[in-house]
Amino acid sequence: MFQGLPCRFEVESVRNDGCPNSKQTMQWLIANDDDAARPSTAQQRRRSSAERLWWTRVTNRNSFSVLVVVVASVMVMAANKPRSGSFSRNFGGASSSVPSIPGLKHGPNGTMLLSSGIPDLDKILGGGLALGSLVVVREDPEAPHHMLLLRNFMSQGLVHHQPLIYASPASDPRGFLGTLPSPMVSKDDKSRVHETEQEKGLRIAWQYKKYFGEQSSESHKDGKSEYCNDFDLRKPLERHFFSGKQIDCVSLKESADLGAFHERCSSFLSQANQNNGNITGGRIAIQSLCSPQCEYSNREWEMLSFVRSLKSVVRLSNAVAVVTFSPSLVSTTFSIRLQHLADTLVSVKAIPDEDKELAKLLTGYQDMVGLLSVHKVARFNTQVPAILETTTFSMKLQKRRSLVLECINQAPVDGATGSSYGSSGSCSGSSKTGSFDF
Amino acid sequence: MLLLKSKTLIEKSKPPNYCIINYQRNQRNYHSIRAVMANALPSNLLDESLGGSSGGGRMILVEDCVETSGAFVVHHLLKRALNSHSSDAVVFLSFSHPLSHYDRVLRKMGCNLSVQRDNKRLLFLDMLALDHLDRNRGKTSEDILIALYGEIQKAVEISRSHEARHHITVVIDDVSLMEVDANGSSDLVLDFLRYCCSLTAQFGCSLIALNHGDVYSTVDQPNLLLQLEYLADIVIKIEPLATGLAKDVHGQLTVTNRNLRVDSGKSRSRIHNFQFRIKDNSVEYFYPGSKT
């Protein structure tokens, strides 16, 4: 069908000849569809030879093929780099300097977002973590899943060359930096896409997934530094990410009170703000704020006032602070006050191994590492709350490498056992799994 | 009896005239109501339950919880106080957000805070700013709260001296953060709020305070929340729905209007309960089940 019709390079040759650009030609073609067979006006005769060549080829076909040519040329031109004039897009509204910064992007209501390091969590939170917000993570004392969140958060900051300060109750917090994951290499992405193709069961349904996979791998190839990387938890972060950047590690065990640490955070933030006048987005990661190894841990009001002043300092700067704490180590009042202080509130929970009840209740139980619940999402400059589709997600390690958050799916009820949907299907009704609120 | 019955029969037998008369009367009422409403604020369930105009010194306590934030009530009351028909003034004590946040939120609702601040109708005391915190190094929290009260009283007196200003509203965003700033001494905070309450009696201003109900739920003895509830004339409690999150209904509101003066001299309290849905430019209030 396309024989004799101009192919792509012919369109380009028409353009480079300096004749009226092909878009005008296109418009003219569309407008004068009826005259396709008989070009007769003087205007047309005066056109350049190349264009006439193209034109005569087109007119030999019927109007349908003219339309196809039009569509094909429009697609070709859309795929090419936009020239100035009719096809260029104007980024008039947004400030021109910010889209070039790899680690940040614009969020709703005039906020700026940075990535949490986990692509699924970014999607859940509406794009990422807002600059100036305080993220509080409620730990589960039985499992270190909050470390997974912290590791991804810190690695993402190092990959984007954002200044980072990390505090933990360990004596040597620098050691934790050795466990930070490295971004996934793109070759693995491609092999992942092919594998999912082969794995598919129902051909018809999974074909769409193939196209989605292609799109995402294309976007990975496009930008050298993307907003959010997929992290490979088995590979440690390369040395060159650690050199020369503003990375500070503080041990909370040594300080008698939190005043000195607060001073350090304030100076860190003021340094981060002055960075060449550009916004880079700083990151503060505080692990296990209330751990009993620290001297101040029984002085709850001191910890609260530290978090309050940290929040007010972070709010006026371009940084995100992530604080994790374990509610079992402090009083309920303190825990609720801290949760009120948080702009974004997330909690992680461990899943017991080999729990038959849960295995019957949920699909994919074997792969699940833990549960992540989102209780609050930061809303600056607006009073409308963010209502999520679900608040609880399962944390899975895909191929033991990358952290993936998925919605929890109930396992299909087995008809053979004879239990009805009402008795075994409800998540909240069962008394044994009462501790899990989905 | 028979006469009455025949009267009713006669009335029933003349439906058209009766209806026309009624319709004309209703139309007249409707137009008069419209004329009145053109000068008054558009009213919704929350305004009705608060008892009409904000005349007289009243204390309104807003309680919320982690799942559902009550900030929208504070925004609504702030907008009501700053509406252009009256020339009331507002003193805003903010512990949780800077002015830019409130400015953007209220601008979507149709109220420009920066203009009001320039017109001296709004005094914004930003407690998040660093200089307030630095003062904490040298002074005790008691001194800071005393100084803060001094500022508020001065502002109220200055506003009162203007003839046009009839009514001043003091808004405190987040009493629990004031407690944190006072390093946990809720007695100081209670004293501060009692002094602010005395302003309502003395100068006839209103006091609006936001606090978190679930913080105090585990404490049994008389705590700050119970004291505030006792002091307050109106208590607005914001809770999530018992069944969980929903996109159409964001939660439920309970307004308890205490100390209502009834004609017989006794005081009563009225409780209103309805649900709400928060949008950018307004909040919809409706009775449960009547959401269209």
From TrEMBL, chain A:
Region ranges (Disordered): 417-438
InterPro entries (alphabetical): Elongator_complex_protein_4, P-loop_NTPase
Entry annotated with the keyword Nucleus: yes
GO CC annotations on file: cytoplasm; elongator holoenzyme complex; transcription elongation factor complex
Family matches, as Gene3D superfamilies: P-loop containing nucleotide triphosphate hydrolases (3.40.50.300)
Main location: cytoplasm
Location in the cell: Cytoplasm; Nucleus
Keywords recorded for this protein, A-Z: Cytoplasm, Nucleus, tRNA processing
Pathway: tRNA modification; 5-methoxycarbonylmethyl-2-thiouridine-tRNA biosynthesis
GO biological process, one term: tRNA wobble uridine modification
Low complexity bias: start-end ranges: 418-438
UniProt record similarity statement: Belongs to the ELP4 family.
Name of the protein this chain belongs to: Elongator complex protein 4
Organism expressing this protein natively: Salvia splendens
Lineage, highest ranks first: Eukaryota, Viridiplantae, Streptophyta, Embryophyta, Tracheophyta
